[in-house]
């Protein structure tokens, strides 16, 4: 099954290549790009434990903001991310956000965070 979704603008987006670009940020441990029915896709991310333990919030915001700019510069207009949302939950097989082969369960992640994704944001990087 292909992981493709359609934005509110009627454009199709393949999230996996965008997620690969976001993994270049040293702080990102897990990422899921969603956007079905949204004007622009959004990246939901989990930070590495080292980052959450030792890196100040302003450095995290700056790094993710730079990553957002870098990633968006490589994407078509309809694929560009509206924002990055950092969630505190780790996605594991035990909490059923990953399959036994360590693939993300996109539908479950999108469902869990749909209210956060739908909320208007005053920043391009949102830390929960």
TrEMBL record:
Highest taxon listed in the record's lineage: Bacteria
Pfam families per UniProt: AMP-binding_C_3
InterPro entries: AMP-bd_C_sf
Keyword set includes rRNA-binding: no
Keywords (A to Z) from UniProt: ATP-binding, Nucleotide-binding
PANTHER family per UniProt: AMP-BINDING DOMAIN-CONTAINING PROTEIN-RELATED, LONG-CHAIN-FATTY-ACID--COA LIGASE
Name under which the protein is recorded: AMP-binding enzyme C-terminal domain-containing protein
Species this chain originates from: Leisingera daeponensis
Taxon lineage: Bacteria, Pseudomonadati, Pseudomonadota, Alphaproteobacteria, Rhodobacterales
